[in-house]
Structures are given as C-alpha cells and as structure tokens.
C-alpha cells in the first residue's frame, strides 16, 4: 500500500525533489453539470452535497465559492476542489475566473488534473466551448496539458458507445477534446462498480502526471529563469525517470486493491444539481 505523505515521488519543476502528497483534482463546469456528484464519487463519500449553499449562507456571500474536500484511496491521499458553476445561457462572470484561480491555490503546490465536467444529457455548444476557454484563460495555454473531460450522466448513453456519442455531437465537442489531448472519462451513476470507475479515472490521471512530469503550476516561468549546469540537469532528468517509475509502480499497486463499495447516493445533491429539472427542460428546448 502506498503512503504518499511519507514518500518523495516527483520533483518540482525547479528540479528540487518535492513529496507528492497525493492526487490533487480541480472540477470545473456549468451548473447542473454534475460536479458535486463526481467529487463525491471520487472520494467515496457524500461531502460536497449542499456545501455551496451552506457556506454561502453562513458567510453571507454574494456568490458561491470553491469547496475543498479530502479522502483516501488505499493509502493515496486525494484532494478534490469543486469550483462554482455558471449558467449555460450566459458568459461566465469575472468572479468565476477568480474562483478558479482560488481553486488552484487551494491545491498547493498545484493540481495534477483539471476535470472539465460535461453532462451528456444536453448538447455541448459553441457557446459552451467559448465559456470553458474563457474560464481557463487566466491560467495560460499550458493548463490544457493538464485537462481531461469528465462526461457525467453516462446512464443517458445506455448501451451507446461514448466514442459514437462524440462523433455524433460533432466538431465543437471534438475541439474541446482535442484541446485536452483527447483525454476523457465517463461517469455512469447507474453502474454498481463505482470503485472500478474511480480506478479507471485514477489510472488516466497517473498517465497524465507521467506525461507532464508533474503537476500544473503558475510559477513555471519564474522557475525556468534559474540557471542549471549540464550535470545538474542530467541529475534532474535521472531523478524524474527514477521517481516516475516509483510513482507508477506504487500507485498502480494501490489502484489494484479496490476500496469497499461506495455508499454514495446517485441522487443529485450539489448546489449545481438542484437545477436538474431546469437542465432537462433546457435540453429539450435546445
């Protein structure tokens, strides 16, 4: 079993070895997209729930804020930040972008993956793509290297393959996937094997971490200014390769030991999920 909090696994982009304390995830998407349920699925607990509404009410805030929860996957620490959603029929307000930046800071030293939540029960439009790009714009183009599309409400597909769904949806959805390196995962609330779904997702995240040699950080440009000798750079690369192998071996070993069955309800319970009837009507209307 892997204990990430005690093991130095990945170097930081400066080349200095830093401990990988676990997997850090940021969830982004519109209202009704299923972010809260996805977060609960990943953590095997009903944590996000009505947290948005409760926090907003207690602090008398004008809008929702990011919510962070942590869990454990067979010894691997998992941190999930859910960012507030925006309405599908309007452009994301500036405070949404600020909250996304806040969500990144809550994943210090940086998130390993941004899961862009896309509900299958409604078409993904040009306006939706522009909104997603706008929300991520303050993080620079580099952020797309760390993005993955998470399709929710996968039960709407029935036995229809997700690849066929992507083709049927057309160029807009395909453009989003291309920006994410064609990385995606489907969350099906009707499947009883929740642990298997999370295992598959974590395997894809680990592949992404290996490809990027670390997590997303806004400090990359500053770190690149630090000079390194050839021998130092060679040592850094050797350490990267060594710790990549250690990361993959240990985390995959943890992933092979499935946790107990999830007790998470498939019912909608996040602030963004309170508007599901509206969303279904919106789908029919469009």
UniProtKB/TrEMBL annotation:
GO terms for molecular function: GTP binding. InterPro entries: G_AIG1, GIMA/IAN/Toc, P-loop_NTPase. Residues 20-225 form the AIG1-type G domain. Gene3D superfamilies: P-loop containing nucleotide triphosphate hydrolases. Keywords: GTP-binding, Nucleotide-binding. Pfam families: AIG1 (PF04548). Coiled coil: none annotated. Belongs to the TRAFAC class TrmE-Era-EngA-EngB-Septin-like GTPase superfamily. AIG1/Toc34/Toc159-like paraseptin GTPase family. IAN subfamily. This is GTPase IMAP family member 8-like. It comes from Cyprinodon variegatus (Sheepshead minnow).
């Amino acid at each position: 079993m892997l204990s990430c909090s005690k093991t130095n696994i990945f170097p930081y982009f400066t080349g200095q070895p830093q401990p990988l304390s676990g997997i850090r995830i940021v969830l982004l998407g519109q209202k009704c997209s299923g972010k809260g349920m996805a977060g609960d699925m990943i953590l095997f607990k009903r944590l996000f729930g009505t947290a948005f509404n409760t926090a907003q009410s207690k602090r008398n805030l004008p809008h929702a804020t990011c919510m962070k929860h942590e869990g454990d996957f067979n010894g691997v620490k998992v941190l999930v930040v859910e960012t507030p959603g925006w309405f599908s029929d309007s452009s994301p307000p500036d405070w949404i972008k600020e909250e996304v930046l806040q969500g990144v800071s809550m994943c210090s030293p940086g998130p390993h993956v941004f899961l862009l939540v896309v509900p299958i029960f409604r078409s993904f439009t040009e306006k939706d793509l522009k909104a997603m790009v706008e929300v991520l714009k303050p993080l620079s183009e580099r952020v797309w290297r760390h993005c993955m599309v998470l399709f929710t409400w996968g039960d709407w597909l029935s036995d229809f393959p997700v690849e066929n769904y992507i083709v049927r949806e057309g160029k807009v959805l395909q453009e989003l996937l291309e920006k994410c390196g064609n990385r995606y995962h489907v969350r099906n609330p009707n499947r009883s094997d929740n642990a298997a779904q999370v295992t598959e997702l974590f395997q894809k995240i680990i592949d992404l971490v290996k490809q990027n040699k670390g997590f997303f950080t806004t400090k990359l440009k500053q770190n690149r200014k630090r000079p390194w000798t050839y021998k130092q750079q060679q040592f850094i690369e050797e350490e990267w390769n060594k710790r990549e192998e250690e990361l993959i071996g240990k985390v995959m070993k943890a992933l092979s030991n499935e946790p107990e069955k999830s007790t998470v309800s498939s019912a909608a319970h996040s602030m963004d999920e309170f508007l599901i009837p509206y969303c279904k009507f919106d789908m029919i209307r469009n």
